[in-house]
Amino acid sequence: MMTTSMKRIKQSGRYGMFLTLLLWTGITGAQTEVDYLSDTTDTNNFSTPYHSTYTFFYHLNEGHYDPDISAGALNMAGSEGQNASALAVMLKQIFDGNGVYVHMNEIPNAPNYRDTVRNGQQIYVFDEIILPSVYLEKVGNQWKFSSNTVQNIKALHQETYPYGTDKLLTLLPKLGSQVYFGLHLWQLFGLFFLILLVFASHRLFTFLVDRGLYYVLVRSGYRTIAKKYLLPVARIVSIYLIVLLLAIFIRVLQLPISIVSWVTIFLNAVKPLIVTIIFYKLVDVFSGYMERLADKTTSTLDDQLVPLVRKTLKAFVIIVGSLFVLKYGLRIDIVPFLTGLSIGGLAFALAAQDTIKNFFGSVMIFIDKPFQVGDWITSGDVDGTVEEVGFRSTRVRTFRNSLMYIPNGKIADATVDNHGLRKYRRFYSTLTITYDTPPELIEVFVEGLRRIVQNHPKTRKDYYNIYLNNLSAYSLDIMFYVFFEVPSWPEELKAREDLILAAIRLANRLEVRFAFPTQTLHMETFPEKQGFTPVYEGDRAGYQKKLEQFIKSETRGESRPPEKTAH
Hints:
single chain; alpha+beta; five-stranded antiparallel β-sheet; three-stranded antiparallel β-sheet; 17 helices; 13 strands; elongated
């Protein structure tokens, strides 16, 4: 461990990523403890976990470098014939490369120490999260790094310094060992090369994305997706690659462990954080693809489903990403946290049972699809048009233009009358005519009404009922029972208007009088006065001729007023 001083470099605004150039002054924590206890601590003692650790790191420091003594802390059983001193140096590099800071005051100083967490075994693990396979064990009367740890040193070293960077550990010191600003010359060269590599890799990746992948997507007709979703994700991926380069090459510089430990914690926290951001943005890309698929369908419910899926996926990504940041970045054991969640889950479920019920109610709405956005529904006191289906509630716009929020759990259990799914819309009315209308004229009038229904483009032709079916107190009642094949209520109203106006025009042509509540007083007819009761002098043939003339005029549109056109 070497003396160094620390200084930060300012953030590079365009790339959104800052590099930290560290110059160290002062002694690291472990070195300080070793020096402080050097008068009273045996530097060649393996009787306790504390003494073995002290001896191992003390003789690998720059001022007391003697790897042969440090190698005495290795249990070489099963690794005979290998260079113990080289393995000791590699193990030290594994600690430094992973940023594992060894706090001497936390290491037990008892010859018969037992790990209560591991059923009383005589072992000591330095770091449960980063290096769980590196631990001391008691061999006879001495504490040494376990044989299993020694056998895995080369594999751990390769994992700590991947892609051939382990060779730099021997090549870089050859550049010079002079000390400037508390750093060796080869470390300064390494820092300069690392900064240059970071900026060059960012430039290269940006060029490949902006000029390559973006160009291909634009030429393929995906300009919106490329501009709105791809480029933000690509920039975050570029930052992630920079963090990976820093995490790999910062280890090669062999900087003081007290600083490297904090840098490692920072980089390990940033990596899952950036991955979380990447997946968070990829949710938008996936949602954009789902929106395009939803636009191709006739249903509007899947259009409402897309934002719900997007919110759910984003919440899931944030939760999982936070757990990874806590565990691998901040080195916090999340098992007790998850255990606490499982224990408190029951109480939470009981407290939020209405919310959970509404959530599953929304799930059932999307699965069963009893209605979709835009449908007119009736359910109890609810009567209106569906505007939005959310996780907790459904929003319905009433015909009073007010807004009702109905919990989805209530809708899932209720009877819903979906008027929007009707194939036909019923129209029932009663046409009342006067009692003095001749039967022949009534028959022609009823036949004319049927012809009107048959000629209308939006009526159901296979089922309708138009009959003289009742004798009321003041009128003869004709049942007018038809169905319209229209998608919306305004179109239904327009179709009703067409039929009613056609019936009125037919009655006027045939001289059929509609009845209304009246009282008739019959008086003697005077010769000079004509009575109010009409005199029907025609016969069925005459009425039928008038009907045919009416149907022809209706077909040609002669009886209808000209439609106004907008200019």
